Amino acid sequence: MDDHRELWLFRHGETEWSKSGQHTGRTDIPLDKAGEARARAIGRRLKGRPFSLVLSSPLIRSVETCRLAGYADGAELDDDLMEWDYGNYEGRKTADIRKERPGWLIWKGGVPSGETVDQVGERAGRVIERALAADGDVALFAHAHILRILTACWLGLPAVNGQFFALGTATVSVLGFEHDYRVIVRWNQNSHLVEV
C-alpha cells in the first residue's frame, strides 16, 4: 500500500503569551497584530489549496489562524486539538518554574493539576485516527505542544518524544507517507513569513 495522503499542521500565529514565553494551555488568548499578519501569510502560502478535512482547536488563537488563512468555511472544531492542559503552570514561564523546581522540563517533570504527556498523546492519537479516516489531505490548526506530540505519535514514537520537534508560531509542517511507513515530509517551515 502506498498512501499519498498528508496531514498539514499549522501552529497558530503569535500571541502576547507565546511571545513572552508563558505556558498557554487553555487560557483563550487572541492573536496579536503580528500573529494576525502571519496567519494571513499562511493563507498566501497555501493559495486556497483544498483539504478533504479541516480541523481546528476551539481556542481563539487557532480558530482565528484558520479563518485568516482562509479555511474557516467547513472547518470543524475538535477538542482533542486543544493545547496541553498546564494546570498550575498555566501562564507561567519555564524560568520561573525552575526557581521552585531546578532543572524542570515539561516533558519530564509534569504539571500539577494538569494533563500528563501520555494523556495529551491519547488525544493526539484520536486526531490521527480521524485524519486517516478522511478521503484526502487534512489540515490541522492547533498549538505547539499538541502538534509536536501528534508528530511523535504519527511516527510511532512515545508522546514524550514530541520534545525533539521544535515548532515556531505560524509555521507549516507536513506529515505523510513514504511507501507504507509514516514520515515527516516538511517541518517548521516559515519562509512564507519573510514578507510579513
Can you describe what's shown?
- It is a single chain.
- The chain has a six-stranded mixed β-sheet with strand order 3-2-4-1-5-6.
- The chain has helices spanning 16-20, 33-46, 60-68, 94-100, 106-109, 117-132, 144-154, and strands spanning 7-11, 53-56, 76-77, 138-142, 172-178, 181-189.
- It is an alpha/beta fold and 196 residues long.
- The mean pLDDT is 95.
- It starts with 6 loop residues before the first strand and ends in a 7-residue tail after the last strand.
- The radius of gyration is 16 Å and the shape is globular.
Number of helices: 7
Taking all Cα atoms into account, the compactness measure Rg is 16 Å
Order of helices and strands: EHHEHEHHHEHEE
Strand runs, count: 6
Spatial strand order of the main sheet: 3-2-4-1-5-6
Return residue spans where pLDDT drops below 50 for at least 5 consecutive residues. none
Strand content: 15-25%
Q: Helicity range of the residues?
A: 25-40%
* pLDDT averaged residue by residue: 95
Q: What is the oligomer described by this structure?
A: single chain
Query: Major sheet, described briefly?
Result: 6 strands, mixed
Short structural description:
The chain is an alpha/beta fold.
List keywords for this structure.
34% helix, 16% strand, 196 residues, six-stranded mixed beta sheet, single chain, alpha/beta
Describe the SSE topology.
Layout: E1 7-11, H1 16-20, H2 33-46, E2 53-56, H3 60-68, E3 76-77, H4 94-100, H5 106-109, H6 117-132, E4 138-142, H7 144-154, E5 172-178, E6 181-189
Parallel strand pairs: 1-4, 2-3, 2-4
Antiparallel strand pairs: 1-5, 5-6
Helix pairs in contact: 2-3, 6-7
